Predict the 3D structure of the following.
Amino acid sequence: MITRGNFGKALLVAAAALAAFADARAQVIEHKVTVTVKPSQSVEERVSDEFKEKELRKAAEEKLASSESAKIADSSPRAILARARTVFISSGTSYFEPVQLQNELRKRKEFEGLQIALVDGWEQRKVADVHVEIDRPIFTYTFTYKVTERSTGTVLATGKVTAFDGNTAAPKLARRIVEDILRARGQLPAKK
């Protein structure tokens, strides 16, 4: 237990040790310090510097945005869709399960020739080149699809089919999606 008297002694010993350490260190290390004193800036100079800083920051942000935009613009949606090798399918409606479209795509002979792999599982969506999202607006028989590039979110293809349920919509959606990919690869004539 530390009492008031013991605490004072301990503090005195610590101070003596610290002084001895500082003295020993001061003898070994030699530091040269150069100090330059500049007059403080006037209000006009500070405002001018702040304005220059804002302009430089704005120019840097614009340059970054334009380079990102150029990267996206350099890759046309058709070219991105043409080189897609992995696809992730999701559904935004309870009337359609992704496995329905996966099965119908595998049944198509053209899809086999495209050499595209289907990835399944929510955690695997990150490795897919493109994402196919199926939806069905409420109170309709219209099933919509949207094909997007995973990394940039660029929309590559969209479309819709009319069907009573997911079982009849899946073959129609598979046909339309395969046609979009074939068209992007130049294996089908362009839509008119």
